[in-house]
Every structure is written in C-alpha cells, then in structure tokens.
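Q: Here's a chain of 290 amino acids. Please give me its 3D structure as tokens.
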Amino acid sequence: MYERILLPVDESTSSSAVLHHASELAHWDDAEIRLLFVADTTRDSVTVVDNDVVDALEREGGRVVEEAAQTLQNLGVDYSTDVVQGNPAPTIAEYAEEYDYDLIVMPTHGREGISRQLRGSVTEKVVRLSDRPVLTARMKPDEELTFPYERVLIPTDGSRSAKRATSHGLALAAELDATVHVLSVVDDSALGFDVRSMLSGEESERGANEAISQVVEEANEHGVTKLAETIEHGSPSEAIREYVAGNDIHAVVMGTTGRSGVDRILLGSVAEETVRSVPVPVITVSPDEE
C-alpha cells in the first residue's frame, strides 16, 4: 500500500503525534518516509548571517528536518530528508507526483512561527491539488491516533471520486483485516414539502442504496467480509462526524469531490470540513484524471 511516504514538516512536527503515526504506517508496510521542508518563496526570507546572504527559511528547514529525522531514527524508521523552495501547497503536491509517492501525511495545522506553511489552509489545498492519497490528522493534545485501524469508514455517493476512494479504502481494510463501515448520506436539507421535493428525495434514497450496494459488491472482490451499511439524512459533514464518534471509527477514507445536485455527498467542501473536524485520520483520494 504505502512503500513511499511523503511527510511535509514544520517546526511543530518533531513533537507531533502525526510523526509517530506515520512511523507506525512505515513499520507496518516496511516503508521509507521522506521528510520534506518547503521554504516558502512567497515570503521574504533572505537575511545576512556572518556577512553571507542566507535564506532564513532554508536554514530553519535544515534544523526542522534534522529534529524530525532524529525522532524517526529513534523509532527505527527508514527515512530521507529534503529542503526545497516554492509555494508550499502546490510544491508538496507536485513533489509527491514527480517522485511517485504512495501517500502524503500531513497534520491539519501548524504552530505559529517562522515557517507557518502547514496551517490547515495549506493542508486543505494539498488535499484539493494532490493526485496522490493524502492522510490528514487533526492534532489536539487530548486526542490519540490508533493503528492498526480496526474500523474504517467509507462515505460514498457512487461518484467517480467516491469509487476510487472506495477501492483504496477496501484494499487498506483487506490488508488490516478491518471492519468496513459504508455510509451514504442523503442531503435533504434543501427539500421542501411539495411533490417534486418528495420525488427528488426518493431518487436520492435510491441513489444512496445503489452507492452502498456497489461498495458491498467490490468488498466481496477484495475479500472484505466484515461490513456495516448505513444511510443517514441531513448534512453530510455532520453525519460523517457523528458516525465517527458514535461507532469508534479509527480512520475515514473518502473522495475529494462528489456528484452535483441533490445527492451532492462528497463535494470538496465536505471533504475539507471532515478533514478539519473529525478526530481520526482522514485519507482523501482524488478522482482519476479524465
């Protein structure tokens, strides 16, 4: 699954749970982690040190990757490091594609300081831009990340992006012998009480059932037999968040875009809201190129 993992770092990473979670993934799949620091060229960071012109962010980047590398070394993980310049989000996405990484791992925020490039907004941009799976984890002091995942949630609306995410999530669950929870959310908040709204609601319900059936069929192909199927009504992001909390979910695998119309379950805004709000790792998967 994940033989090559890209982990963008900032000054908060060496003490972050996401670094330890990435190391658990690496041990599980015998993977190598590349620690990447992006010196943000959109900011003025050139200074003079001992009469030499130095890029302060690159200098800081060297220190940051060294600290994170020390943690990985202590954890017994194979790693390499790199410091590059660029606009952080597109640089991270392009770097992962150019060097053929299987997974990008990022926290949903970074601390204030000289290299603020890993704030949630940048992570969310990477989620939108990357054609590689992105694992994000919301870092809060009272939260712990569980691995191996025993319960994996796959939200679906049957869209192209959701189908690719489903394949990824089922492959991961099969490797971990995890239970797969399949959730389809009918967003009926905009429906009224007229006949047309009733028909649209019934159509959305059928679509949700069809989407779940497709996941179940593919699960059988992957040899995944432990399944739970659920249809909810309401706000997709809220339904996903509540399902995670109510069912002790360890990870969510979802698409970054979804269908348009009344069954718009996995639109980018829903994926980004899920990334920001749920207290477990979220693996987002983009659709195949047209």
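Q: Can you summarize the key feature?
A: The chain has eight helices and twelve strands.
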